[in-house]
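To whoever is on call:

I kicked off a structure prediction for a single chain this morning and the downstream step that reads the tokens threw a length-mismatch warning. I double-checked the sequence; it's 523 residues and nothing unusual in it as far as I can see. Pasting both halves so you can look.
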Amino acid sequence: MSSVVEGPCYGTSISTSVFLITSDGRTLRLPIPSSSPKDPLNWDAAKRRLVLGNLFFFAMLAVMQLQSLGVLVPVMAIDYLPQGISILTFTPMASSSLVFVGFSQFMWIPLSLAIGRRPVFLLANVLLAVGSIYAAVSPNFYHHVVAQSIQSLGLMLIDLTFIHERIMVISIFWSVGGAISNAMIAVVPRIDNLFHSWRGFYYVLFLLALLSSLVAFFLCPETYFHRPALAFDSRVLVQSTAERVMIYENWTEAGVQKALPALPVTMAELRADELKIWGLDIPDRWSRMGAIYPQILLLLLNPLVFWVMILNALATTGILAFDLSYGVLLLSPPYSLSIDKVALIKLACAAGSLATFPIAGLLNSKITRRLATRNGGRQSVEYYLPSFILPVITGFLAQFLYGLAAQRKMHYSLIFVAYGMMYFSFISLYTCNSLWAVEAFPCFAAASLTVVMGISYILPFALSFVIKPWTASVGQLSMHATLGGLILGVGSIGIPIAIFGKQWRAAILKRYGNMQGGALRPQ
């Protein structure tokens, strides 16, 4: 067996693309599914959709918890400001869940490689429920901060999709999930009115998280599956940790033993096995988990990952800057809107989120397929770069428009439009950056997601402490225009990456491509 940290991820040559489309136009279904009923790629469509639906539902609840800040801050301040919490302390501390979301990525994603996806996902659901009920009954501000932090967990599950499906699935995950969660946030004031307190939102969130936990336990089996080598057309196909397929003439050349036929199992035995929380057989599980962290340090210095990490963080900061200001802005003169009307800004977010699917999903899928066809059927991660253009430009324009409308007290509809535009940019960039993190360096996929998603929350939390003083010093227009300029500037780094990125990736993979601790399924 090869080393946990090092192994032949790419065979004898370094490949920066994957053969995905045949000469007659057929799309290959990679990774190649096995015949095992435990292989998620071998599940029927209904079962896969059910599991994906539960993941979407959980993600929507997590987004609701994070994105409800702008609606809840003004009414929570009524309770907490008399406790001696200044507004400059309250605002960034109320976003403390961001830093816990960020740091959790550095634990839960590696842990999912050691113990499997199911235990981590179940734990995430339970902690979301516990955090929600704790927030609902929290006696003071600092207890509420702890409650928010408990809810914040993330999980990476790519196991349910073929490579060619990931653009569409990740796009739906972010766009549809973001749209529904924001539409639900728009009715938060009505929930609060029903309960006569902002705590009513957390009671409802607790019930939904409890439902998600039950569905996850009974209907979401383990998705981690190690696919064995396959005999095909008198040859041996071995699927690497990087999801590449290597072809050998015989089992000796492949360096693996032919797998024994799986013993038949009854439906009852399979169902009992799917309900297990613990017990997945992963050799050297803790060594595999520990092998990710050296890769994380390496990726922090990798310009091709550092770029999307900072871009993701700036997109999150852009949304956070809106969340920390629009509530107070629209409740104050000259707008003086009711909290019910202020919450309707989330419908603009829902519209912006939905708009990402035809752009980041459908259009991106067609562009990458067309470019791969022109390249002899080989798909390269650089084909995702055109999909960065529109969200980067939109993010810049959204920040400028919001700052202009807020500073000059223009009609509040422009603030709604700016927020919808920024949310389009935010969701589109998260979709593109997630795809880039997984496929730019497949041997480092888990470590890359950890870095990109983790820093994307930690850095905005740090910046949340300076947004209010920065705005007070230079004004809304200057602050938001500068933030938009940073999004545009960092996004423009995609231009040299489009030109030289493939060579840079090849050089990095040639030197470090045998490190496999951060692969999706380390051998």
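Update from on-call: the warning came from a stale cache, not from the record. Cleared it. Sanity check on the structure: DSSP finds 22 helices and five strands in the chain.
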